[in-house]
From TrEMBL:
Assigned GO CC terms: cytoplasm
Keyword Phosphoprotein: yes
CDD domains in the record: A_NRPS
Single Gene Ontology MF annotation: phosphopantetheine binding
InterPro entries: ACP-like_sf, AMP-bd_C, AMP-bd_C_sf, AMP-dep_synth/lig_dom, ANL_N_sf, BtrH_N, PP-bd_ACP
Coiled-coil boundaries: none
Any GO BP: secondary metabolite biosynthetic process
One protein family per Pfam: AMP-binding
Protein name: Phosphopantetheine binding protein
SUPFAM superfamilies: Acetyl-CoA synthetase-like (SSF56801), ACP-like (SSF47336)
Organism superkingdom: Bacteria
Length: 713
């Protein structure tokens, strides 16, 4: 038709244009075009790039809703700049406003509102909707303005950039997400022709993101996820990817989102899928399917790859416990497939599991032969990752393997702290957390234990200094910025975060360092990894530039650890008892925060509308508290032994918090308000306050004789 009628101006929606580009056997007809106008939907960069291959016509992006007589702004697209919607046409004004009708500054997004001669009078027979969308122009008296519901911002040169729909903004796990931003990143990937991201919801896992894409070749979900990890933060990576022959369209050529297939009906079988075989695998698969709200999970599917997240870990832990599987969330993080979890439950070697984990970036552990001294290679033998607990921050968890390697262990450090509650509350939110009160600085503990720290400065580059330190038998804890670390795909080029690595070896020929690190914020399982000299240097320099403000009196940006003459470390238990006794009033003072939380919790959960707003924050906060209480138990066992009466108290505290968390999390995931369960959780919190007081009094009596302690308990 274009050829026969010698058409030189063409207008269509982006979806129709995509069909033309992919469905026509010959595109030579496009060469005669002088003007192409595209509008009605967001215009992908990839579509414009593909169109330019077949025509030299000027390409215009036409923006505007029907309510303002179709077009309100026009942009002549330039290959040298991103797609935008240009500027307002004649007799039209475009404002970017906040929720109160105030103008937003240049570069700050808000709602795009249109005023001028093209604005309609309203919707026929729909007075309420008209009053909501058609308002008086706040800047021109007597004129009308239309609220488009589009999110946009003004660029410095006066052009407008549309960022998507305000009503398509979704909140998933506390994050506000723009699906169109994810679509744009997917379309940047090689071989992707079309893409759309939809938000779904099911009773199992709540809201989730699903990406639908069109490509000439078969592309696996794992491959797409791995590619997007370098472009998007983890919470914006879709849980599901579905490949289609083409996107469904409405009669007017726009994507028909209601016709997109639902991913919750089953996980699309891919290479490597393996169904559950043993009885325990089948039982676990049923539990996983119930928690995630999907069917057909294979034994090698990673929990996080099939819609799981850190909050659903809590639900999974609860459901496992109901079926007689007592696995804490730290172990769930570690054994994230059905097969690994089954082997863990059975007590078999998890290392022998054949696990397909295509998304993992963990580097292999070095072979035993690498532990020997070779030319240009040195590895300090005997240093292993420590995953018993995650304590306070990354520095401790990097230093603990060194302390264990030196024969000192972790107890002197744990015994230095007293755990207390902190509670902050106001009209907007309330947050209960735990904190540690140290008796003395960590550097003093290290010195007393015989560990010397130096600045690891030998006159060379950072890599030269680390090599020299390792040559002297001194492992290194190095501060880095995760933004520059490719090994941390959850942070790389997305978020600045100060962090530490334990460096214990190098290979100068291959220019790689041996480090101990975890690869994801939600997976705190430390493993042996390999990282290049260049990546280590860039990550450390990023820390120095973004976080280090001067010489720290205690901790250095690059710390070398050396074992010297050890002082008597056996008195750490005595120090802890003395610290507990001296801190009694302080701990009781902080315990008042728990009692305030108890009152606010009662007022909140007794009304469903307030519980709905607070359930997620409650669940996350309680989860952190349970983790810190488990650290406390680990410490008490190390100091007082498995038979200490105080363990009964700490176990009762952990169980009470777990029961409360279960009630809140169950409401959060089901939205079913069960008054009996809510009242039970209030009673549990009352009992918990009593248990905590008993626990404090018990700890503060640790300097007395054992018989007195048992009698007091």
């Amino acid at each position: 038709v274009i050829d026969i009628n010698k058409v030189d101006m063409l207008q269509m929606t982006p979806s129709r244009m995509q069909l033309l580009l992919t469905g026509s056997s010959s595109l030579s007809c496009l060469k005669g075009l002088r003007t192409v106008m595209i509008g009605g939907e967001a215009v992908p960069e990839s579509l414009v790039s593909e169109l330019r291959k077949h025509t030299e016509a000027e390409i215009y992006n036409m923006y505007g809703p029907t309510e303002t007589t179709v077009w309100s702004s026009v942009s002549l697209l330039d290959a040298k700049r991103p797609v935008d919607i240009g500027s307002a046409i004649a007799n039209t004004r475009i404002y970017i406003l906040d929720a109160h009708g105030r103008l937003k500054p240049v570069g700050v997004h808000g709602e795009l509102c249109i005023s001028g001669d093209g604005v309609a009078r309203g919707y026929l027979g729909r007075r309420e909707l008209t009053e909501q969308k058609f308002l008086p122009d706040p800047f021109f008296e007597g004129e009308r303005m239309y609220r488009t519901g589009d999110l946009a911002k003004y660029l410095p040169d006066g052009r407008l950039q549309c960022l998507g729909r305000i009503d398509q903004q979704v909140k998933i796990r506390g994050y506000r997400i723009e699906p169109e931003e994810i679509e744009a990143r997917i379309l940047e990937l090689e071989n992707i022709k079309e893409a759309v991201v939809a938000v779904g919801e099911n009773a199992g896992s709540g809201k989730y993101l699903c990406a639908y894409f069109v490509s000439d070749r078969k592309i696996s979900s794992a491959e797409l996820k791995q590619s997007l990890e370098n472009k998007l933060p983890n919470y914006m990576i879709p849980s599901f990817f579905i490949q289609l022959d083409g996107l469904p369209l409405t009669p007017n050529g726009k994507v028909n989102r209601s016709a997109l297939p639902k991913p919750t009906e089953g996980i699309k079988a891919e290479d490597g899928y393996e169904k559950p075989e043993s009885e325990i695998e089948r039982r676990l698969a049923l539990i996983w399917e119930n928690v995630l709200g999907i069917k057909g999970i294979g034994v090698n599917n990673d929990f996080f790859d099939v819609g799981g997240n850190s909050l659903l870990i809590i639900k999974l832990e609860t459901e496992l416990e109901k079926q007689g599987f007592f696995i804490d969330n730290a172990s769930i993080f570690k054994y994230r497939t059905i097969r690994k979890m089954a082997l863990f439950i059975q007590g078999d070697s998890v290392e022998n599991a054949s696990v397909q984990n295509a998304g993992s970036t963990a580097m292999p552990r070095e072979e035993e032969s690498d532990s020997e001294m070779h030319e240009n290679t040195k590895i300090i033998k005997g240093i292993e990752p420590f995953n018993e607990i995650f304590y306070k921050n990354c520095f401790y968890n990097s230093a603990f393997p060194v302390a264990i390697h030196f024969g000192i262990g972790v107890m002197p450090f744990l015994a230095n702290d007293i755990l207390v509650y902190n509670y902050s509350h106001g009209k907007a939110k309330m947050k209960l957390s735990t904190d540690y009160i140290p008796r003395e600085p960590i550097t003093d503990i290290m010195e007393r234990c015989g560990i010397r720290m130096d600045k690891c400065q030998y006159g060379g580059s950072i890599t030269d200094n680390i090599e020299e330190s390792i040559d002297r038998g001194k492992p290194v804890v190095l501060w880095v910025d995760c933004y520059y670390a490719p090994i941390r795909k959850d942070m790389y080029l997305k978020r600045h975060l100060e962090h530490t690595w334990l460096v214990y070896g190098y290979n100068k020929t291959k220019r790689i360092f041996n480090i101990i690190e975890h690869i994801h914020m939600e997976n705190l399982n430390y493993e042996k990894q390999l990282i290049s000299y260049d990546e280590l240097t860039t990550s450390h320099n990023g820390f120095m530039e973004n976080f280090f403000s001067g010489e720290d009196e205690e901790l250095f940006p690059c710390c070398g650890f050396e074992f010297a003459q050890r002082d008597n470390t056996g008195h750490y238990t005595k120090d802890f008892k003395l610290n507990a006794l001296n801190s009694r009033e302080l701990v009781l003072h902080h315990l008042e925060g728990l009692k305030l939380f108890r009152e606010d919790y009662r007022d909140t959960v007794l009304r469903e509308e307030t519980l709905k707003d607070s359930a997620e924050e409650f669940t996350q906060g309680i989860n952190d508290i349970i983790s810190s209480k488990r650290v406390e138990r680990y410490k008490l066992v190390g100091m007082l032994g498995e038979n200490s009466p105080v363990l009964d108290l700490i176990d009762a505290v952990i169980k009470s918090w777990t029961d409360i968390r279960r009630v809140v999390a169950k409401y959060m995931y089901s939205s079913v308000y069960r008054e009996s369960a809510i009242l039970s959780s209030i009673q549990k919190l009352e009992e918990l306050c009593f248990l905590e007081e008993q626990y404090v009094n018990f700890l503060c009596g640790l300097d007395q004789k054992d018989s007195v302690l048992v009698k007091h308990h």
